[in-house]
Design a protein that fits this description.
about 375 residues; mainly alpha; 16 helices
């Protein structure tokens, strides 16, 4: 097996392990079952994105200066800490907020680092054109594993908060064992002997000037963040809203799994529209995700499920096209930092939308 295939397979494994956790997929349901209201869940979601807003770009700089591999290892360590604190402090609002914040750091250290490691590993071997297929595969793995975990949402509630998060801790330790076997990108190892402060200054300065002079990149980032924000909030709150339609408890998991299939369809079709301009894809996805959001207010389970399905479809379709487009435009030396700006903008959008959605979905 060649180097690129081994490297990508390990990244696939990290994605699988990171999303198969039933506690992670059913976190809203677990909090509601522990007595927290939908409005409080909206506040926790805001905490998540406030931390992300603060730490996202620094975590990208960390990945570009210290290494993408180290960033992925640190992501798993944060996952362990978050799960432990969720076990110990579940009855404390502040404790849960702290746990959510550490969980955000876990995502921060992974976002940007994984795609940068993959793209530059392929680029070093003259195979960057294979990145399109890689990110499509990663998106499908995310949706399938997260869908399976969500399908077992009822099991998470039956196990309870403690046992569900113990499973998360075990998965995180396996992640760490996989991450330590990754090979760092040459662009990182070649600059390892340079002064730390100089590397940080250069990474931040050049990233800022790149974004300032490239409206195409900033436009792609903000449009992708807006579509993704609507989809994620819709899928989160449908976990709590669907049971209110009168469906049986056992059918909630299958309905949430059906929604995730929309993302798989979006990932599969993303390569079919690779020749389309991103602006055209945005208009299509905005119309689709808006229809999905509106379906929530029908109060009819199958219509709400269909809404979640089409929203996931739109989210993954534009996310893949935006990811591929961004990686072809940004320089390797600041790749993780600039890709992290994409996640930073997503958090900015979510800070605005999360409490607003908490109020809307409480109606």
């Amino acid at each position: 097996m060649d180097f690129c295939k081994k490297q990508l397979n390990k990244l696939y494994a990290l994605n699988f392990l990171g999303n198969i956790s039933i506690a992670g997929a059913a976190w809203v349901l677990l909090l509601v079952s522990c007595g927290y209201s939908i409005f409080e869940v909206g506040i926790f979601e805001t905490v998540f994105h406030l931390v992300s807003l603060t730490a996202e770009i620094p975590s990208g700089v960390f990945a570009d200066v210290f290494g993408r591999k180290k960033s992925l290892i640190l992501s798993s360590v944060c996952w362990v800490i978050s799960a432990l604190t969720r076990i110990l402090w579940i009855q404390s609002f502040a404790g849960v907020a702290f746990s959510i914040g550490i969980n955000a750091l876990s995502y921060n250290f992974a976002s940007g680092a994984d795609s940068a490691l993959a793209y530059d590993s392929l680029k070093e071997n003259g195979r960057q054109d294979d990145y399109d297929r890689y990110i499509s595969n990663q998106t499908m793995i995310y949706r399938i594993t997260n869908g399976v975990a969500t399908l077992a949402a009822g099991i998470a509630v039956m196990l309870g908060n403690t046992k569900a998060h113990i499973i998360s801790i075990i998965l995180a330790f396996i992640q760490i064992m996989v991450a330590v076997t990754l090979k760092e990108n040459k662009v990182i190892s070649q600059s390892a002997d340079r002064e730390f402060a100089a590397r940080v200054r250069e990474c931040v300065s050049e990233s800022f000037h790149f974004l300032k002079g490239n409206r195409q990149v900033t436009g792609i980032i903000f449009r992708n963040a807006f579509i993704g924000g609507i989809d994620i909030l819709l899928l989160f709150f449908l976990q709590a809203k669907l049971p209110m339609t009168g469906i049986r408890d056992w059918i909630l998991g299958p309905l949430l799994f059906v929604m995730s299939l929309g993302g798989i369809l979006g990932a599969m079709l993303s390569q079919k529209v690779r020749s389309w301009p991103v602006s055209r894809i945005f208009i299509l996805c905005l119309a689709v995700v808006t229809a999905g959001f509106a379906a929530n207010f029908s109060g009819i389970a199958w219509i709400m499920t269909a809404g979640g399905f089409v929203a996931a479809f739109a989210d993954d379709l534009i996310q893949i096209r935006a990811d591929v487009e961004l990686n072809t435009l940004v320089p390797s030396e600041q790749r993780a930092t600039l890709i992290s700006v994409n996640s930073w903008c997503f958090s900015l959008v979510m800070i605005v939308l999360s409490p607003l959605s908490g109020i809307i979905f409480s109606l």
